[in-house]
Design goal:
The protein is an alpha+beta fold. Among the domains are: about 40 residues, no CATH class; about 35 residues. Helices cover about 30% and strands about 20% of the residues. Strands 1-2-3-4 form a 4-stranded antiparallel beta sheet, with no helix packed on it. The longest helix is centred in the last third of the chain and has 31 residues. The chain is elongated and about 90 Å long. It binds zinc ion. Zinc ion binds next to loops.
Length: about 120
């Protein structure tokens, strides 16, 4: 296996202990990852070193707040929407039957619904 060198400074790259997919430059402290690049000229797939933005590299800093999924503001709204959807579907499926049963149980109410 050939030694991998940093594309920007030529320094030695070391595999990140926390994430084996990441290569860390000991010289300039940059992080790289291998990305499969499909060459249009040769039709071959190559492994190419691409720099990893700082934000997605492993950081030992643990955030205290729980992981946000982005759905939090919609959580209760989704729940309400699902409940409404459920009742609408139930109403569509069983509504006429329930109405017929209701009419059978309360014959006097039929005249009220048809003024
Ligand atoms: Zn470097």
């Amino acid at each position: 296996m050939t030694e991998i060198r940093c594309p920007s400074c030529g320094g030695k790259l070391q595999i990140d202990k926390q994430n084996p997919k990441l290569e860390h430059c000991v010289e300039c402290n940059k992080t790289y990852t291998f990305q499969t690049v499909h060459s249009q000229e040769t039709g071959e797939e190559k492994q190419q070193l691409v720099p990893v933005p700082e934000s997605i590299t492993y950081r030992p800093i643990e955030k205290k707040e729980p992981k946000r999924t982005g759905w939090e503001p919609y959580g209760w709204k989704r729940g309400v929407a699902l409940v409404i959807l459920f009742f609408v579907l139930m109403g569509l499926m069983y509504g006429p039957k329930i109405y017929q049963r209701y009419q059978m149980d309360h014959p006097q109410t039929t005249t009220e619904s048809h003024p």
